[in-house]
Amino acid sequence: MQDGFVKVAAVTPEVRVADVAFNVESCVAAARRACTEDGAVLVVLPELCLTAYTCEDLLWQDNLLAAAEQGLADFAQATADLNALLLVGLPVRVNAKLYNCAAAVASGTVLGIVPKRYLPTYNEFYEGRHFVSGTTDVVPIDTAGALDVPFGTSQLFTCEEVPELSVAVELCEDLWVPEPPSIAHAKAGATVIANLSASNAVVGKADYRRSLVSGQSARLICGYIYASAGAGESTQDVVFSGHDLIAENGRVLAEAKPFGDGRAVTELDVRLLAAERRRMSTFDVVVSPVQRAYHVSRFSLAEQETRLTRYVDPQPFVPSDAARRAERCEDVFNIQAHGLAKRLQHTHATHAVIGISGGLDSTLALLVTARAFDLLGIDRSGIISVTMPGFGTTDRTHDNATKLTESLGADLREVNIGDAVRLHFSDIGHDESVHDVTYENSQARERTQILMDIANQEGGMVVGTGDLSELALGWATYNGDHMSMYAVNASVPKTLVRHLVRYVADTCGNPEESEVLYDVLDTPVSPELLPATGDGKISQKTEDLVGPYELHDFFLYEVLRRGTSPRKVYRLARYALGKKYDDATILKWLRVFYRRYFAQQFKRSCLPDGPKVGSAAVSPRGDLRMPSDACVALWQSELDALD
Description:
Elements: E1 5-11, H1 20-36, E2 42-44, H2 62-78, E3 85-94, E4 97-106, E5 109-115, E6 139-143, E7 146-151, E8 155-159, E9 166-171, H3 181-187, E10 192-197, H4 205-219, E11 223-228, E12 244-248, E13 251-256, E14 263-269, H5 270-279, E15 295-299, H6 322-347, E16 352-355, H7 360-376, E17 383-387, H8 395-408, E18 411-414, H9 418-428, H10 437-458, E19 461-464, H11 468-473, E20 486-487, H12 494-507, H13 511-522, H14 542-546, H15 549-561, H16 566-577, H17 583-599, H18 601-604, H19 633-642
Parallel strand pairs: 1-2, 2-3, 8-15, 9-10, 10-11, 16-17, 16-19, 17-18, 19-20
Antiparallel strand pairs: 1-14, 3-4, 4-5, 6-7, 8-9, 11-12, 12-13
Helix pairs in contact: 1-2, 6-7, 6-12, 7-8, 7-12, 8-13, 9-10, 12-13, 15-16, 15-17, 16-17
């Protein structure tokens, strides 16, 4: 359970209608398998599974109800050795009335009984014939040989060792109503909602059920575990499919397909859920569950390692599905282009000035600018594409910059910066043979000066090219390529930049444009500030200096978007990218990431405007209000402990 990962299971056991002894044995076996084989510490079984949901008027028989009560006692005793919270469904008699309930069991003890709030009595459902609706008030009852068991809907079951694991219960129809009980549960502090269900199978219902579960988990920023009745319940006119689901904050993590094996097992990240709720200022909570008359039962779990099986995306900014990736790229292009178009329109600028290097970022900025001009109906000749060869410029990148500009119909200008930079070296007394940070940054600042001055000449604006990944690492020259008049790539991570360029190459319909774009994609990422090799190739490769952007974008997503701790970032990176990078490599670049992320905030604190395209951004006006002089020691010490 380290790092907040909790293994959970929704299980559909084999059930016989009205055969309580068989059902208890089957439920015990299902729970034991989930705990011992899968490592689950929270197991949810279906609605009324100790008797079967489809008992109908047999629910008026005292024999069946007494057997169910004894069955709960037997279930609790038989599972006393399991390191888990178990939720099992059964009918419960209270004051001569019958309730459709879920029992929470841990360490052989019945912690609470939660009755169903909303009873469907329409179409094929007749629950109102047999049951009464549960109330929110929690009162003590005696049942299954236990005294003073909490009974009512307003209950939380909270883990002593992992307080972020707080479980609440609703039953089947409770989810399908306009205001499900889970809303109040989440506001009272529940991070996981368990739903014991007997939802039957009809055409199209599985899709709707899936959307309900995923949607509720997103709305409540919770884990949602849905355990549904299976084929053993099928009788007369109804058929059940065992459609079990586990979702987390809008994403279905595990699913037992209808008429499948009836088991969904995965890990919920309850620490992440708690962090997301803290971040969302509009997530309404009460200070104490007691204020809402919630009864809190605490249970204990022995510490155990949670083996990860859930999917962790190695490229969280880039959809793996080709169709979704293309859709994402089109969305991003539209946001970037419309943002720039608005700025051009507002400033009455008819020209845009871009420093084009033949690399990925400036290529994307030029493509976005071309689309913005098209949106405004301005001739693309108003785009001034400036190539500025320096000491490290290669023929390959220079030629690509030239060809791309021509294929787009923009105005190409070339300003060689060599003489100007050498004069600057002379002015400040710098030895040109010393290839240090002054040598590199002087070139970047000279290029920025040229772009700004051309923009002034033409009454235009400088369009920035730097991307989100570079800003996170501070891989930009302060008041050099760090500065522009509108930074169209500022919230686009490097891994996504590559796919955006490829998307245009694949879809533009211009063979000349596609050819140069594919070559840009094959060119190593480089600032080209150091002289080329003897054979004219790029000598300065960014990823050799600061690390693979694939790793840094993964780190960035976890740290910036999720607030994940260094130890947990390392664990997730090993899990998602461990087949490509060894542990030492991951840890090495994670150290670099944290060091640069903290040290370079001063550059992010004065960024130019730029369109936000995703949920992770570093604009000081929006998503990241980080002190420029914050100390990294706390995070670094956690990384040191990993050694």
